[in-house]
Design goal:
Blueprint (H helix, E strand, L loop, with lengths): L3 H11 L2 H20 L4 H10 L8 H10 L7 H4 L5 H12 L5 H9 L9 H12 L8 H8 L3 H18 L6 H14 L7
Amino acid sequence: MLNVKEAREIIRFKLSKPRFKHSLQVAEVARELAEHYQVDADKAYLIGILHDYAKGISAEELLATAEKNELLQDELERQVPDLLHAPVGSWLVQHELKIEDQDILQAIRFHTLGDLNMSVMDKIIYLADMIEPGRDYPGQERLKGLAFRDLDDAMLFGLESTIRYCLDRGRLLHPRTVEVRNHYLQRIRPGRISC
């Protein structure tokens, strides 16, 4: 299997300098979270390096790859192809880098929109992507604190932050983000009344 040094070189070549730096920072935070939650820290670091594997791909190529390989899950993804960088990245990592480890592939696939069946590793990568030191947004420090206390609480806060961000800017919301947010809300605070 691909080692970390090889992964770093591949990503350095594939991504812009700022995106490469982001990947390194996500990898470091993912390692810290993995150590904290006693899961495979080396694997978390590798996933952090690879999580944006498809980020440098054009919208047209993301859409074409997704269509060809039946990765589209919602019509909104045609309108906002950047949402496809996670599932396309997972597919490319499997087919170009020959990585078959489902923990790695699933964490890459879920790191943007989340999913109803996220493992501890999936949550770690999702949150590391949001709290790495290069990010700067209101609530980031609170999210970081939550991430090291309770992954589910952090997921709910992170998803709600993303939804607020999209609403404040008049952006489209992917239905999966809303579905996953509702899942965590019901899990953490059962019996909530819907709007």
